[in-house]
Amino acid sequence: MVMLPKPKKNRTIYFDNASTTCIDQKVLTTMKPVLQAVYANPSSLHKEGKKAAAELEKSRKEIAKHCNALAENIIFTAGGTESDNLAIYGLAKATINSGKKHIITTAIEHHAVLNPVEDLAKKQGYTITSIEPNGSGLIDVETVIKAITPSTVLISIGYANNEIGSIAPIAEIGRKILQYRKQNNTPYPYFHTAACQATNYLDLDVEKLHVDLMTISASKIYGPKGIGLLYVRRGVPIEPVILGGGQESGLRSGTENVAAAVGFAKALSMARNIKEKEIKHTRELANYLWQKLKKNISAISLNGPEIGDQRLPNNLNVAFAGLENEALLLYLSEYGVMCSAGSACSSRTLETSHVLRAIGKSDEEGRSSIRFSFGKYNTKKEID
Ligand SMILES: *Cc1c(COP(=O)(O)O)cnc(C)c1O
Q1: 14 with 332: CB under 8 angstroms?
Q2: Atom in ligand 1 nearest the alpha carbon of residue 160
């Protein structure tokens, strides 16, 4: 029997950065004076309102620059989930009279995409094509393009998977969708990607990616929680799902969270500046833990692509045959190590992850899998 050290109650080793990251102290520092002193409503016409509006627009401009977008195409929301909902319901609402009611997505999307799409199918008669990934979670470009019909209104494919880190060829799919539109002389289908997991590590240039709609959340990039954005390319038909005072070009009513927007801009700038370094750093950590686990435990396997270019550098999803992931998770937590079984968002249900099922894992394999997701503050010493 292996003797384990006693749990250390005061230790926190945070290997759950794909669920959310801590806030960077520099982000907090930029937010504080705004929270304290820039309290007026950015829609107000007085001087203080103008001051708030200026902060908001400065942040929007900064963020747009990192996506190679125009500031006016960045719509602030309350997070990734809301942005996904706005993209899907908003486009559906605006195109309801086009008669196009077919949506292409994948079997491994986040629930913030899957559930709105399923809802449209159930309540509004949309038909859905759910693209199956291969055994590593990778999506084939041609399979997506072949699924397009004259009725296809939207294609929504996540940039990188939150559970197994598989990266989708968004730029290539985007380019092929453009080709389809040209050949068929149509603006349809529109293309949305949820880039929440990709933001720290992958190219966000909306022109190179050829996306019409793109979701980003500040909470995954060391920014504040409760703010996200939807990039909306000019001319894309979209209607708001939250109605009111008409803020955010009419697409998202409600007083903007100026301090959070300022923090979001700072977080994104920092993430883009250290991108290459973080790819190297987090991949090294993932590989280090994987090699250690392999050396010491025989009954383990990696879920998702091999460690390399087709996998997010910070993601390690491991099946420990014969173990129950919930028990293991709580056990690790006692030792101060925080990680996830599947995604944090589905941790309230005991079902096997839909992502692991889609890549051909059995219920048993699914329920023995743990996700470690690293970030810029993690070290090899923590893994040891
Ligand atoms: C985190 C995440 C979301 C949800 O973002 P929130 O800001 O938590 O609402 C959506 N999609 C993906 C892929 C994510 O990783």
Answers
A1: no
A2: 13
